[in-house]
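Researcher: We're teaching a course module on how sequence relates to structure. For the next exercise, students receive a sequence and then see the predicted structure as C-alpha cells, so they can try to spot secondary structure elements on their own. Here is the exercise chain.
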Amino acid sequence: MHRKEQNTFTMPLSVLLIICLLVLSAGAQYGGGTGDPEDPYLIYTAEQMNKIGINPNDWDKHFKLMADINLSAYAGTDFKIIGTSANSAFGGVFDGNNNKISRFTSTKRDYTGLFGYVKDSNAEIKNLGLVAPNIKAEGGSNVGSLVGYLDEGTIANCYASGGSVTGKESVGGLVGYNEGGEIKDCYATSRASGDEEVGGLVGYLRGTIDNCYAKGTVSGDKYIGALVGRNRSGTITNSMAKGRASGEEREVGGLVGNNSGSVVNCFAGGDVLGGRTVGGLVGTNSGTITCSYSNGSVSAEGYAGGLVGVNRNIVSNCYATGGVTGNAGVGGLVGDNTWPGKIICCYSIGAVGGTTNVGGLVGFNDEAIIKTSFWDIQTSTQSNMCGRERYGIGCNNANGKTTAEMQTESTF
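Model: And here is the predicted structure for the students to work with:
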C-alpha cells in the first residue's frame, strides 16, 4: 500500500516538472512570459526580436518590448521578418511599450517591413517607434518600414522617423498596403520612393487612416501622395501631410495621388509637382473630399489645381491658398472639373498661371457643376472663374472677389 501511494504521488510531480520545463523553454527564447494576453513574451534584445521571425508558431501570441533595440547588426536579409505571406502571417499583438527600434535594414523584395504580413482582425501593433529604417526592396511590392501588408488589424500610436523606404509599387513610409486595416495616431518622416502607389505614410489604402501625418519626401512615377499614394475606397480623416511630393508621370497630390474613397478634415502643405493631373491635396479625385484644404505650391504640365488636379466627383467646403502653374487646364482650386464632378462651397486665393484653359477657380469645367464658390481675382491675377466651360453649370465671373472682399466675413 505504501509503494502504491508513493507511485500515485510521484506521477503528477513528473508531469508537472515536464510542463514547467516546456514553459521555461518557450519563454527562454525571449526574455520571459508565456505569450498569453496577461503574460506576453518579453523582448529585451535584438536577438530576441529576431527570434520572433524564426518562430512562426508564435505569430498569434502577445509580445511586449521592454527596451530600446538597435538592429544594425542585421543587414540585407539577415533579420527574420515577422509574417511572410497570407498563409503565414502575424496575427498576434505587439506592444512596443513606447520603446524604439533603430536601424532596421532589409533588402527583402516583397511583403517587406519589420512585420511583412499582418492578417487578423484582432492583430495589433501599437506604441512602437522606428528610427532611421533603411528598406531597399528593389523591384518589390507591398513595402513599408513597419508593415508591408496589413490585412485587417490595427496599427496605433506608431511612427517611423528618418531613414528611407524604396520599392516598386505599394510603397509607404510606414505601411505598404492597407487592406481593411485601421491606422490611427501614427506618423512617418521617412523618405519614400518607388514606381507607383507611393505614399509618405501608406502606399495603397483600402482601409482607414485617422489622426495621422507624414512629413517625408515622396517620389515616383504615378499615384504619388505625400500621405497616401492611392486611396481605393478607403477613408482618411483628421490627417495631414507636409512633405514634398513629385511624380514623373501623373496623379500626384500633396495628400493623396489618386482618391476614390473619402477624405475628410485633412490638410496638405508641401509643394507638389508632376507631369499631369497634379493637385495640392489630391491628384485625381473620383471619391469625396470635404472640409479640407491645401497651401503648397503646385506645378505640372497639365491639369494642375491648387486643391485637385482632376475632379470627377464631389469637392465641398474646401479651399486652396497655394500658387498653381501649368500648361493646359490650370485652376486655383481644380484643374479639370469633369462630369459628374461637383464643386460646392469652395474658394481659392493662390496665384494662377498657365497657357491654355486657365481660370481663377477652375481650369476646364467639362459637363460638371460649380455651386456657391468663388476666388480672389487680385491674388490669382485671373478675372475668369473658369478657363473654359463645355456644357457645364456654374462658371460665373460675378463670383470673383477682391482681396478686401475675401477678408470680409460676409463673403463667407
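Model: If you want an answer key for the exercise: The chain has one domain: 93-411. The helical segments are 2-28, 46-54, 403-406.
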